[in-house]
Amino acid sequence: MARNVDLTSKEWCDVVFANRNKEFGAYQLRLNSKPRHLRAFLFTLIGAIAIIIIAYSYMKVAAYIEEQRIMDQANQELVAVDLAAEEQEEEQEPEETKFEQPEEQALPEEILNTVKVTELLIAQDEEVKAEDEIKSQDELKETQTAFGQTDFDKGTDDRNVIREHKEEVIVEKKEEVKEPEKVFTAVEQMPQFPGGEAELMKYLSKNIKYPTMAMENNIQGRVVVQFVVTKTGSIGEVKVVRSVDRDLDREAIRVCKSLPKFTPGKMNGQAVNVWYTLPVNFKLQGVN
Known about the structure:
The chain has 288 residues and is α/β, with parallel strands linked by helices. Helix content is 37%, strand content 14%.
């Protein structure tokens, strides 16, 4: 018998059913077996593909739900930390600025010299003090010094350079301490990566460099990172809220700091600083 004989062909069926009752039904079944087998194969293939697609979709949905749960938990922790920090700031009283009283500086060059005018008084010799020198009328006429109750010779005789002495008070200006700008955890319009989340995932997969030590020790997992998207769209503070390994944490922080500018988040139409939570997956190929 030839090897290339089609057992489902009409010619072969005629040979098999020669001198037999073809009206019984077996002849028709044998003749139509090829289309039936083909339909069965196609239905089986389509069913297998549908099962694979449903299983893959279920895995993606489950992973997305898990990521959302992690993000919500991290946001709740951040809100609790922010509330505690605000309470501590309210309890702290601002320190009063102490003003030091400036020392008075003498201006001897602007103080007018004076000559004591001695009044004549009859007194005993022992009651007269040596310093009470009596100046003659001629001396008083010749001097350009002003008259006063005492002798003062530490200033100036020029009355034109005398100015009015006013008490000078130096007021120390209190330096304004700028309060750090508030960082929101949830806003009306969250920050957006250029191109959306799909482009963000592509950027991470393209730029992540798997740490050598983690690769040699078969360490993998998901590091959850939070960073501030500033009002200008640049990346601010970066921190790890869910750690896996020190090397993986450092690589996740490095990649997040290298991200290009986001479209900043907005509150009431104004750009604001916003915390952004991002899970970074580290997975080795061929390792379950």
